[in-house]
Amino acid sequence: MKNFTDKTVVITGAGSGIGRGLAIEFAKLGAKLAINDYNEEGLLETLKLLPTETIVYYEFFDVSKKEAVYEFSENVVQKFKQVDVVINNAGVAIGKLTTEEVSIEEYEWILGINLWGVMYGSLAFMPYLRKQKEASLVNISSVFGFSGIPYQSAYCTTKFAVRGFTESLIFEEKLSNSNLTVSCVHPGGIQTNIARSALKAGRDLESVAKFEKTFITPPDKAARTIINGIRKKKTRILIGRDAVMFDILTKMPKFFSRKFIEYQFRKML
Question: What CATH code is assigned to 8-268?
Answer without folding.
Answer: 3.40.50.720
